[in-house]
Design a protein that fits this description.
Radius of gyration: 23 Å
Largest sheet: 5 strands, mixed
Strand content: 15-25%
Distance between the termini: 15 Å
CATH superfamily of the largest domain: DD-peptidase/beta-lactamase superfamily
Helix content: 25-40%
Strand order of the largest sheet: 16-7-5-2-17
Order of helices and strands: EHEEEEHEEEEEEEEEHEEEHHHHHHEEEH
CATH topology of the largest domain: Beta-lactamase
CATH architecture of the largest domain: 3-Layer(aba) Sandwich
């Protein structure tokens, strides 16, 4: 724990011990991204062609070129299709090509647990990807399961965005409302077949799950293809993934929201995919290579510039999902102290979850903690959680503000340890004057 004004260390208990930070890694990633890319930085998606439009026919290929934007939605692809229609395009005499070459082809971080591959927080990373809604969980679909139907029937379900890219096998069963449903959802490895198993209680509230798809670039191309069809634009060739030639003409461009806004879902909702995209984008922008290795080198450069020692850490990803990440809590508080002098610090601070604030995009992962306590609305901090790991680091904003980092590893009872974490924060907030 440090004084936020002077940086003086006020309390230290094993603060120099390297520990797994879980999503507290996102504090480093966010700081490096703001420093490297800037708060006004925007990702882009482009529609390009190597052909010419002639009397409604595009003689050549149409490319959907992704440059890392995790905020691209199905409606944005609809908008592309509408604009192409307004240009007079009716037929594409060539292929529809998805270009994800802005990043390399390593779609998962090295330490991703195999059983997390179908989970939304384990979605594959691609330069060309779409999100199902404005939480921007790129590379996922939303599956909503309804409890309507007779006992013994299969429950109804819907997929968003509506697409033929995934195939849902429904083996689940509606049971009496007196029984507690136990629904299972899993995507088969290496495919986009999603299997529903278990039971759903009759007349229960609909349940929505986010499922990571296999091959996000092909997913984006399929959704774009279906949008083009709806707007009467036919394609004579195939759907494929390939790099666009250097001399293509850009027909349409869509910029993302600025990084300053994108940090809100990244930090408040602890979006893992954003963290990995930021790593690859920093590598692409600073070193010309959209890879984990290049991006993490940029992060290490940033930490060295701030007077930290990344050579004494183990940095494996940008999200903190790796159990192999190792960082000292003292280095986290040191970084948080130094970030206060950055021109973009208020953007960084605004992205942190706020203790006890019920608004989802304000309180974030702290919205259900510290309500009605002395910590409410004065603790701005990033949470972190893995099996056997909990962390919480940030700022306590009172007359004598504090910077803190709590990392606890190798425990079994998550509920009990989180209570210890909360008790520490309450002591700090009560004595922060």
């Amino acid at each position: 724990m440090r004084c936020a004004k002077s940086g003086e260390m006020l309390f230290n208990h094993f603060g120099n011990t390297r520990l797994t930070p879980a999503s507290n890694m996102k504090l480093i990633t966010a700081g490096a991204a703001l420093n490297t890319l800037g708060p006004d930085y925007r990702f882009t998606t482009e529609v390009c062609t190597d052909g010419k439009l002639n009397s409604g026919d595009l003689i050549g290929n149409l490319y959907l070129r992704g440059k890392g934007d995790p905020t691209l939605l199905a409606k944005d692809l609809e908008d592309f299709a509408l604009k192409l229609q307004s240009l007079g395009m009716k037929r594409i005499q060539g292929n529809l090509v998805g270009d994800e070459s802005w990043f390399d082809d390593q779609h998962l971080s090295e330490d991703m647990v195999w059983s997390d591959e179908h989970e939304y927080y384990g979605a594959q990373i691609s330069a060309l990807t779409i999100s199902p809604n404005t939480d921007y969980d790129a590379g996922t679909i939303m599956l909503t399961i309804s409890s309507e139907g007779e006992i013994g029937d299969s429950p109804e379900f819907s997929v968003s965005p509506k697409t033929h890219y995934v195939d849902v096998i429904n083996l689940a069963t509606v049971v009496s409302s007196k029984e507690e449903g136990e629904l299972g959802i899993k995507r088969n490895h290496g495919s986009n077949t999603i299997v529903l198993t278990g039971t759903v209680s009759q007349n229960a509230a609909p349940e929505t799950k986010w499922i990571a798809v296999w091959n996000p670039a092909s997913y984006a191309i399929e959704v774009f293809y279906e949008a083009l069809e709806r707007y009467g634009i036919s394609i004579s060739g195939h759907k494929k993934i390939a790099s666009a030639p250097e001399d293509v003409s850009t027909l349409l461009t869509r910029p993302s929201m600025p990084l300053s806004e994108l940090l809100i879902p990244f930090m408040k909702l602890s979006n893992n995919g954003h963290g990995e995209i930021f790593i690859k984008e920093m590598g692409r922008v600073r070193k010309g290579e959209g890879s984990f290795d290049a991006g993490l080198e940029v992060v290490k450069m940033f930490l060295k510039e701030e007077g930290l020692n990344p050579d004494n850490m183990c940095l494996r990803d940008g999200s903190g999902i790796s159990q192999m990440n190792l960082i000292q809590p003292d280095e986290i508080t040191n970084l948080l102290f130094k970030l206060q002098n950055k021109s973009w610090f208020l953007t960084f601070l605004n992205s942190l979850p706020v203790a006890g604030s019920p608004e989802r995009l304000v309180g974030g992962t702290l919205r259900d903690r510290f309500g009605g306590t002395t910590a409410e609305n004065i603790v701005f901090a990033k949470t972190g959680s893995l099996i056997g790991v909990t962390s919480l680091s940030g700022y306590i904003k009172k007359e004598e503000p504090l910077i803190f980092s709590i990392m606890i590893n190798h425990f079994l009872d998550e509920e009990e340890i989180e209570k210890v974490e909360d008790d520490i924060i309450l002591v700090l907030s009560e004595n922060a004057l």
